[in-house]
Amino acid sequence: MSTLEPAAQPKPFKLWLSQLQMKHGRKLMIALPYIWLILLFLLPFLIVFKISLAEMARAIPPYTELMEWADGQLSITLNLGNFLQLTDDPLYFDAYLQSLQVAAISTICCLLIGYPLAWAVAHSKPSTRNILLLLVILPSWTSFLIRVYAWMGILKNNGVLNNFLLWLGVIDQPLTILHTNLAVYIGIVYAYVPFMVLPIYTALIRIDYSLVEAALDLGARPLKTFFTVIVPLTKGGIIAGSMLVFIPAVGEFVIPELLGGPDSIMIGRVLWQEFFNNRDWPVASAVAIIMLLLLIVPIMWFHKHQQKSVGEHG
Q1: Is 259:268 a contact under the CB 8 Å cutoff?
Q2: Are 188 and 249 in contact (CB under 8 A)?
Q3: Of 53, 162, 213, 266, which sees the most CB atoms within 10 A?
């Protein structure tokens, strides 16, 4: 006659872990994103803000400490001159202005190119849709730097584009495209258009096309139906794609540095020069803080729109 063996008892650690998940699982899940933001956003921001209030020094790191103990007393030195320097030198204002201009124009170009691409992918056959999505994402699998260098070979005076135009007889002499603002726009649009396509594609495949059919049945023309029905239904994807393009384009460094010329003074290049060429970390940190504050405006607007959209549909 066989005897039943007692069930194995869980180990103390596993038992404690399961009890912790049952009691505080939801709180832990909510806490994880906050911990991520604190470690990778708030803490670096506070460090950069601290450096922006320091003074440049010939030391490692090249800035003075804000708090020092001297003769048993704590002395705090805050230097706001770094922020005042940004208002005195027109270089910084021009760099901010040009960065916002380039980012805005590039975002509009990405929208004009990305919306038709997203529309074509969303309305393609299911068998070819995944292939088209793969073609949209595929360039992002290669090195960003290699792709920018490839555009240098395409846009230079004896590059692929000029040789092709000369062969067609469209031009008599090579066009100067490389190291101009036009090359910067081409590089940014090429690099960031997938970030515009994917959110719009997601919005397009969620549309209830019975609304489109109803508008057409009521006599609306296709063009009017597109602007009055489809575009409003994909507004969330348009705004999300625009934010994904505009925000990184403002601080872009590699593309203006390699494809742009001396007139392509964007804030990313200014940051690089202050940090590595001038080794003026306090001024560079002040430049970064102001740039971040400028970017908070569209981020807050996007967050407000998302809350409004959730409220309307929830």
Answers
A1: no
A2: yes
A3: 266
Q: Taking the domains of the chain in order of start, what are their residue ranges?
A: 13-75, 89-279
Q: Provide CATH code, domain 89-279.
A: 1.10.3720.10
Which residue bears the tokens 């397009």? Answer: 204
User: Is the model's pTM score more than 0.90?
Assistant: no
Token couple for 116: 């038709």
Distance (Å, whole) CA 219 – CA 208: 18
Q: How much is the pLDDT for 260?
A: 93
Angle, vertex CA 198, rays to CA 123 and CA 230, nearest 5 = 50
| Cα angle 265, 267, 268; round to 5 | 100
H helix intervals, the chain: 12-37, 43-52, 81-88, 90-122, 126-137, 144-155, 160-168, 181-205, 209-217, 222-225, 231-233, 235-250, 254-259, 267-272, 281-313
Q: How far apart are CA 107 and CA 249, in angstroms?
A: 8
Terminal Cα-to-Cα distance of the chain (whole angstroms): 63
pLDDT along the chain (314 residues), means of 10: 52 63 69 86 92 89 83 80 90 94 97 96 91 91 92 94 92 92 96 96 92 88 92 93 94 94 90 91 94 86 71 58
> What are the b/e assignments for 37-70, b being 16+ CB within 10 Å?
eeeeeeeeeeebebbbbbbbeeeeebbbeeeeee
Report CA-CA distances (Å) from 46 to 31, 290, 311.
20, 13, 33
Task: Give the dihedral sign, CA 261/265/266/267.
Answer: positive
How far is 23 from 256, CA to CA, in rounded Å?
A: 52
CA distance 277 to 156: 27
